[in-house]
Design brief:
It is built from 13 helices and 14 strands. The chain is α+β, with helices and mostly antiparallel strands. It folds into two domains: about 210 residues, Sandwich (Jelly Rolls), CATH 2.60.120; about 70 residues, no CATH class. The longest helix is centred in the middle third of the chain and has 25 residues.
């Protein structure tokens, strides 16, 4: 059996969480996932050939014997109405489908592919194309494409005809479809960030994110400066929100740092600085959130915990530095807050609010 349930791979767990949503919100999960690990080696390549028939004929590289197995796994999501596929695979060759396959499968008109890891080389309409991580390529799955893909991780976004309406002059040349057209680099960076945060998206937010994704895609295909500029703002905002969720989910982790956030978003430190520019910087934001979480925990504990234990929980290793930073932020020391919390009389509503806020992810 090759179907996998969401979250079944324990080996991917680490000290860092991928983020959380508000209480009661359901996160996006794969509609379908697969792995050849659960098949016999002689059946693995045939399974992948059947699964990927939509894109072309998948062949093992360098005449590799099919009986030796073929490593491939992935997951398919529905982001609003957008099919969103992420897969990992060992190296393979891609050859065009037969005309019978093309007619029978009635493919989606367009696909956008982005390597997250690995490279691809294609021959399309006599032109040689090379695709590296972060480079978005739009093509017709029904088109005639030959290629060689290294050991890789790929993202595929499938587009319906109405989603590219009005873009014909950008997608077609004088000799027909420019099958394998690279688009503005902004789209690749956006889709890589989306791939890394897909399971932090609440289901009720998926439709709005899908609409924003289509708008960004259209702007990047047209490559008109006015469209690109308009698309920059929602990308920056979405990355900031994803990073803030990630930070709040990992306030207790010793591994939380600027580098960890940068890796999570798959952006450079320079770009990360730009994203957090209006919040005072990444480290400032992390410290601020840890102080706020410590404040809430001290009040919620009402003397049942030591100030030192709360400081250590949120990774303040030096008690004196914690106390100074705390007083500078809130106007009183952690001990003074703890004493006041012990004496305060709270209503049931205040108790409930404290309990909610104390449950830091």
């Amino acid at each position: 059996m090759f179907i996998q349930n969401r979250g079944s791979s324990a080996e991917y767990q680490s000290n860092l969480s991928q983020g959380t949503c508000s209480q009661g919100q359901r996160l996006l999960a794969p509609d379908y996932s697969w792995s050849t690990d659960n098949l016999t080696k002689k059946d693995q390549l045939e399974f992948v050939q059947n699964e990927f028939a939509f894109f072309g004929n998948v062949l093992a590289c360098d005449g590799r014997d099919a009986g030796l197995g073929f490593r491939n796994s992935g997951a398919a999501y529905l982001l609003g109405n957008l099919p969103f596929i992420r897969f990992q695979s060992e190296a393979f060759r891609l050859r065009p489908r037969s005309k019978i396959q093309t007619l029978a499968l009635n493919p989606t008109p367009w696909a956008i592919t982005v390597p997250l890891r690995g490279t691809a080389r294609y021959v399309s309409n006599g032109s040689l194309l090379r695709q590296s991580p972060g480079e978005a390529l739009i093509s017709e799955p029904a088109g005639s494409v030959c290629g060689r893909i290294t050991d890789c991780e790929f993202l595929v976004l499938l587009l319906a005809e109405e989603e590219v309406t009005g873009l014909d002059r950008f997608l077609f040349g004088n000799d027909g479809c420019v099958n394998g057209k690279t688009v503005h680099t902004l789209l690749g960076h956006y889709l890589m960030a989306l791939a890394n945060t897909i399971e932090t998206i609440a289901r009720d937010e998926a439709e709005a994110i899908a609409e924003a994704t289509i708008a960004i895609m259209r702007a990047c295909i047209s490559q008109r400066p006015i469209d690109i500029e308009a698309a920059e703002a929602p990308i920056k905002r979405s990355r900031l929100v994803a990073a803030q969720n990630y930070i709040r989910a990992n306030l207790r982790s010793p591994d939380l740092s600027s580098d960890a956030v940068s890796a999570f978003l798959n952006v450079s430190r320079r770009r990360l600085h730009d994203i957090f520019e209006q919040t005072g910087g990444v480290q400032t934001y992390i410290k601020e959130q840890r102080l706020k979480a410590a404040f809430t925990q001290i009040v919620y504990a009402r003397g049942s915990r030591s100030v030192t234990s709360v400081a250590q929980e949120f990774r303040f290793s030096n008690g004196a530095n914690f106390s100074r930073a705390f007083k500078a932020r809130f106007g009183l020391t952690p001990t003074e807050l703890s004493n006041q919390a012990c004496q305060a009389k709270l209503s049931n509503l205040e108790h409930w609010l404290l309990e909610v806020h104390s449950q830091t992810p």
